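User: For documentation purposes, I need each entry recorded in a consistent format: the amino acid sequence on its own, followed directly by the corresponding structure tokens. There are two entries in this batch. Please keep commentary to a minimum and don't merge the entries.

Assistant: Recorded as requested. Entry 1:
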Amino acid sequence: MATEPTPVGQKSGPGMDTQLGKAVVDARLATAAEVAACIAKRAKLKEAGRDIELSEILVKAGIVTANQLKRLANPADDSISSSLAQIPGYQVMQKIGAGAMASVYKAKQLSLDRIVAIKILPKRMSEDPEFVKRFYKEGRAAARLNHNNIVQAIDVGEYGGFHYFVMEFVDGKTVYDEMAARRAYGEADALKIIIQMARALEHAHAKGFIHRDVKPKNIMLTKDGTAKLADMGLAREAGDVAAAAAEKGRAYGTPYYISPEQVRGVEDVDFRADIYSLGATLYHMVTGRVPFEGDTPTSIMHKHLKEPLVPPDHINPSISTGMAEVIECAMAKDRATRYQSTSDLLVDLERVARGEAPLQARSGYSDKLLENLAHGQDEPAPRGPGGPGDAAEGGSGTSPVLLGAVIAEAAVILILIIVLMMR
């Protein structure tokens, strides 16, 4: 779990800078790019012999105020700790994380003598019926899922006017934390994590749940390398018609990883939205940057709808063609051309991890090429769902190796057709 944000005035190092920056972004006080620029500025100043705290740089840049940083250091009501200390059956040990909507504490479940995590809504959120309803919905959704790659739900309840959700304690960090420290993952390491997430989503989808907020911050990593999908706060049952109707026209999700249909707020959002978000997460992991950037959440979401995706191997040429194909298939803007089951995505991911070609993603590309040939087009369609990206990226969008393989495949098929016609 994430550690507590750095209080104002407390000396910080690279790790503390990451946590403070994360807290500022989580609270929507700044963009990730603004925080990253301040962290980079601090590093340059330190090289020049001036060790200035990140908090001071953020304030001087006008990104946050000193009072906002103080509230970040203690975002929850002062009375929360004392209330939690009295929750029957639990011994609260320390605060381990805080976001804009809740605080998380490390505690011991006395009946089973085990360490757990307790998420609690602050008083201001507990007084909002909509947040309380969503909070309990998260607990019920998580309780129906039982998988090694999903954070386990243990208990949910209310005490002293505060609503709490007890869950498995994950002793580790998030993918978001890892990327903040090293920017990008190597292909093999990224696949190990994403394959586990695909298995988690396969289980959730089989149980009838859509997560709707797959992203690096919601992927926990244990010290032994196990990845666990966290935060069912936006999860919805696929068959919940009433909830779908109530949410029609609203965009639920995180702008950097949200699917086009979630942006449009369609009623029938299904498991393919999670596939898109997982693809966007993988894109970020192997390229070191999100698929689409913008000055506002609205501009970012508009790009998910309209802007072609720059192929990931144009940004990071070291990743394999197969990896790029899987990402582009998962991130097709038209969900009808994405993977049509989480199991199909998992098969392709496992094949790429073994150094083999992805069957589903490459098949979709081959079908499009044959369709173009049938209509007399000389050039193949751009690889992937959204095209090859901008001309500024300087590429055709098609790997020479892949193009050669597909043309050879098409030639064999055409020869077979000619032979059959001559009989």
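Entry 2:
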Amino acid sequence: MATIIPLLTDFEKKSIGERQALPEKYLGLSDVEMDVRIAAARETLGEKLVILGHHYQRDEVIRFADFTGDSFKLSRQIATRPEADYIVFCGVHFMAESADVLCHPHQQVILPDLAAGCSMSDMADPDQLATCWEELQQMGISDVAGAGKAGVVPVTYINSAASIKAFIGERGGTVCTSGNAEATLRWAFARGERILFLPDQHLGRNTAYYKLGIPLDEMVVWDPNEIFGGLEPEQVRRAKMILWKGHCSVHERFTVAQIEAVRKQHPGIRVIVHPEVPWAVVNAADDNGSTEYILKTVRNSPEGSIWAVGTEVHLVNRLANEVAPGKTVISLDQFGCLCSTMFRVSPNHLLWILEELVEGRVHNRIVVPDDQKHWNRVALDRMLSIQ
């Protein structure tokens, strides 16, 4: 595993100019020079700047982050630095959108590379969601049910666009992360008979089954490319969970066969995976949880423990280095499981952004439209309030 990241980084350096255009002077720089210049710009900006870094970010970028965490943890940190004028989010586009919604009016949110998107987020299109909601109404699913409960409560994973979050917030729903998905589903079931969960079917299915005990036969998958989601009305009426047909391209790489292989190679090894993996993989693993949960579990495990971790390779690699030599951590995927869009935030892009800020020039500002901001805020505030 240790050889994978350097190889990917060397390849990326050769093609960095093929994405968002960078000034020529920011190409071909040595790692040492970029480190020195990033640190200098960061020091010059002082309290005017806060850098947020997601766990899946590459090492040479995340080392400069003021706060490191998953989406939920970073969302909470935004309010702690009101003195900052600039929030540089080393993550992907939907994270920067949420930061823009949650930050103070004077703050500007910046994404170092606008090409850093999320394939899962792209699987939930606002027009398709509007059609889904209309078709659920035609089925009589979204009407108010008994005991004053809604027929369906919409919940979106934070890995979704601002337009999706606004739609969900306006219709009484909320946002969740992998860290509070269980509490969110309990919140939603207290208000409705069933849940429309998007865009990651695996997180919805795994949380509902393993945390709430909802049987698989009470879940259906809504295909947004099919009329009525490819389902009969009676199927939807019987369902407790209506799962959007979406997934994380990173976490779908993990398989039961990988778990079987690693158990043969390392007898006694424990396997822990992220709940974005398919249901069968969670079933074959020893434990599952958010990135923060994975970190906490491995860090608190006994000396001599051996772990195979099923999530993004940068997190796994850093965790392995942190707990060695007392504990052993390997990637469940022997080839490493890279979030290629998160990888696009390079030190070159971070350096360019920061040096331009020093000169008073703002690039790549992420702004959620005003007509979406209110209901985004409602949905995100609900997320932050759910315990």
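Summary note for entry 2:
The domain at 251-331 is CATH 3.40.50.10800 (Rossmann fold).
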